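Reviewer 2 asked us to include a model.

Predict the structure of this chain.
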Amino acid sequence: MSAAPHPLADGVAFVRGAYVPIAEAAIPITDWGFLRSDATYDVVTVWEGAFFRLDAHLERFMRSCERFRLDPGLSPAQITEVLSECNGMDAPTRNGINVPKWKCHQPLEPRGASTMKITTVGIDLAKNVFQVHGIDERGQVVLKKQLRRDQMAAFFVNLPQCLVGMEACGGAHHWARKLQGMGHTVRLMAPQFVKPYVKTNKNDAADAEAICEAVARPNMRFVPVKNVEQQAVLALHRVRQGFVRARTAQANQIRGLLGEFGIIIPQGIGYIATRVPELIEDGANELPGAFRLLVQRLLDHLKELDRQVEELEAKIQAWHRGNEVSRKLAQVPGIGPITASALVASIGNAKNFDSGRQVAAWLGLVPRQHSSGGKANLLGMSKRGDTYLRTLLIHGARSVIYRVSQNADACSWISAVVNRRNKNVAAVALANKNARIVWALLAHDRHFDADYVRSESLA
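Predicted model (structure tokens):
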């Protein structure tokens, strides 16, 4: 009686995590391993149960896959284990074994790179292609790589925990939160602080190298990472600011068009809504009918923009009422719900600043210096930082100055400043003072006290 044929006499294949007879192995014709079979297909010689130069075959195979950005899903060691199992399952043969086809990603370290541990990584962010630059503890370059957006998470989740630096630009806070969740230490920097470290012409690789160099500087200033709620509130402020700007532009356009026909509207946006409808209905001004319809269309658009601004302000005030810290800041004269919510969302953890003066400098409310030779030369305010926050604080200070002009006893300090200097200087001085008060309230978890006097420490 003849022996039963070996079930794997014709060969064995490893497909989708299982060993199957070679006749049952199949892959779609649209698979990249099939379409790039010239690069992802290799033959390993087996002689008396042993592989011939398997390491060299695997190295060439991985390099070919890397070129086409394919991902096998298995490491070279795992592929070796699979081939060894295949070699023991099929019938004894001296034929070659086909290396299976996989989709493969580029290995963590480029060929010939240092094997030292990566300690610092700089990322040049973009919409679709990200440039990564990594160094070890000795400062040697061990990583230069381009990643697509869908490869970022998979790459950094397998990277040992390290210091990651990025410029504070679009999407930076999202990636900072994501990388922090993977255990990395993330630092964001203002782009103007990174630029001096760019050694050559501007390109993605040079920018990533400069970021990697800048993030390791001991005196570098970093931007706090915002959480999702902070970004959502700031988005409300940014959209509201855009609608306010568009509303002002629309009012100016209506005013300019009517001025071409000799009709002058008094200064103030409120006069647009009260005077223009009367002018459209007035038949004595000789405005053409088509022009009247055009102005009415622009007026309707202005009303719609005004409605959008009011709805967004209502959302901001609702968030303000539900946030204890924002309500605390609103107790300061010159700070209302809009300013308080914007400050809370922008500053975040006040302990990131060493003092109230740092907050004032961060907002550009301190003098700009041009000193040399030991001689101090102070100019106008620096106007650095967030223009929106600085504008809100200064406008709030102007409202306080207006109230003081009606009642000098309301704030003796600002009244004295107004008497010595002009109102613009007084407004900036009060905005600076309010910025420092905001830091004190946030950093020390206090409530505003108008009669608070700092206690002097005893020697």
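Residues 118-223 form a domain with the Nucleotidyltransferase; domain 5 fold (CATH 3.30.420.140). Residues 91-115 have pLDDT under 50 and may be disordered. We have added this to the supplementary material.
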